[in-house]
Each structure stands twice: as C-alpha cells, then as structure tokens.
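pipeline/complex-builder :: batch 7 item 3
reading input block
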Amino acid sequence: MGTIQKNLGLKHKYMAYTTAAGALAAYPKRIPSGAVAQKELDGVGQKIGLKIQEILDTGKLKKLDQYNSDPKIVTLNLLCRVTGVGPAAARKWIDSGVKTIEDLKKEKLNHHQEIGVKYFEDFEKRIPRSEMQEIKNIVKTSISQLDQLITVKICGSYRRGSESSGDVDVLITHPKFTNEKKEQKDTFDLIKRIVDRLEKIKFLTDHLANGTQQYMGVCKIPKEGAIARRIDIKLFPKESFYTALLHFTGSGEHNRQLSCIAINKGFKLSEFSITPVGSTGVEGAPIPVQSEKEIYDILGIPFRKPSE
DNA sequence: AAGACGTCGCATATGC
DNA sequence: GCACATGCGA
DNA sequence: GTCTT
C-alpha cells in the first residue's frame, strides 16, 4: 500500500504506511486485533487498524487487491521502478498509452531515464559483499593515487556488514575542504577529478548527476559479464564528515532513533552537524567531533559499531 | 479543522 | 542568458 | 494516513 501511495505522488501517506509497518515489525508480541494495534502502536490509527483487522480476519486486503487488479496502477508501479521516473512522469506516460518498459524506450526520455531503462534489470539486482569489496579496492586505490589526503568510506549496508547491498555509497572528505570553503563556493573540483579518473579506467560507465558536492552514476567491475551498479559519491566538508558518516551508514531506523535521543537530550543531529538546542528552541553552534564515538558520547549513550 | 510530515543537490523545465 | 520552479533521488 | 496544535 505504501509503495502505491508513493507512486501516486502521496509521499506522506507512503511515510505513514512505512512508519506503521515498522512499528508492527518491532512489536514483540502477536497482535490479536486491529483495535489493539491502533491502541498499542504509534503510527497505527483508525484506517490502518481496520486494515490490520481485515487481514487478520480474511488473510488479505480488498483495497490492495483492487489496486493490484487495476492496470493503470500495475503500470504505474512498473514505470516507477525505472530510476529517474517518478509519479509525475509515470502518470503522463500512462495517460498517453505507455504500458511496458519496451513502450517507454520509444518515448522522449531525459538522460537519467535513458540510463534507468538501459540498466533496468541490472539495477534491481543485489550486489554481493565480495563484489562490494572489489569495488571498494578500485575506488580507494584510484582516489589515493589522486590525492593521499582524501578520506574514502564506503557507507550504507556494506559498512554495517551486510552480505549484500543495493548500491554503492561513497563518502569522501579532504582536510582542505572546510565549511568556509563550501560557503565561499570555492571551486573544489575534487569530485570532478575523481570522476574523470574513474571514467578513464572504465570503472564508471554512465553519469546521472555530476556536481561539485555530489555524484550519481553507474559503475562496473572489470570482469566479463559484470553487472552495472548504481554508485554515489558525496563530498562533505571535514567539519561534517563524522556526522555524515554516521548518517549515511544508517540504517534509516537507527538514524531515526539517534535523532530522537538527540532531541530528548537537547541536541539536533543531522548529516551536517550536531548542535545544542536551548530550552527556547534556539539552535547553537555545531559541536566539533573527531569520530563517530564522540557523537555517541555527546548523546550520553554507549558507542555501537556500524555492524551492531 | 488544519498543517506538518527531512532536506537538499542536481538536471531540466519555465518564464522573462 | 538568467532566475526561479519542479521532479527526482537519497 | 497519523499526529499535533
């Protein structure tokens, strides 16, 4: 239900379903009824409570079955699986008769969508940890040849120890790239230089977005039959590096927990900084941190490694 | 009853 | 050509 | 769709 709401453009309903599903999954006991779910679980209200009851009673959800038997919804869900295609583009095409990915190939696509169609199957395949390690080696080696002072971290589920990942999330920083430089919009073309190099060795095969702070693209390891993988490279100023590292290592759920703890203890935690928030709600200057552990220390909770 | 719900970089569209 | 809006991804 | 104001 959540995915359908998102593809319809109702992102807050999508969030509501995601929150409710998370609360349900985290609940230790069996839920005996929709009414109990509504009473016990934050994020489950009347409507989702009734849906839970329906599933308990009948094993299915009429509303969802209706959606899934609606050809327009089926097509909407299909088209939105192409990266670069969202609710607005999908709706436009469905109205003009597009039904399949093959149909989509004949339409006028922007560059991002062209790549999305080109690698439609590849991008849905998981990346085994062994391949993530190969990718990490290639990226780290190339970047250190460029400038030894660049710090490189592969974040996401890989850093949490997962046996497979959905994409490659690379976070970098450089001692000379500071908030001040960022604010002055100094042309710090680190990303461009890295991308040039990784392109030259044929590791990067396509680009989706190529800016001064953020790159999104496609990579392949140099092996026969290698699968195209989504890779992002983000550059953060050194002051933000550890909050960014924490944030992009996740998980999303862990981030929400930390953010909640931070608020309760009078702080605000984001990928950019951790700041004190006074009782009046006025935000103070960012607290400098030199490691992930220092952030946990400020929050007054025991440090847990990414894999925990 | 009504508004918030994360926020921002990048590509591209839109209007001047 | 520039300033701002929109779509999208994360 | 849910929660808060």
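note: Residues 5, 10, 12-17, 19-20, 42-48 of chain A lie near DNA strand D (CB under 10 Å from a C1').
queue -> next item
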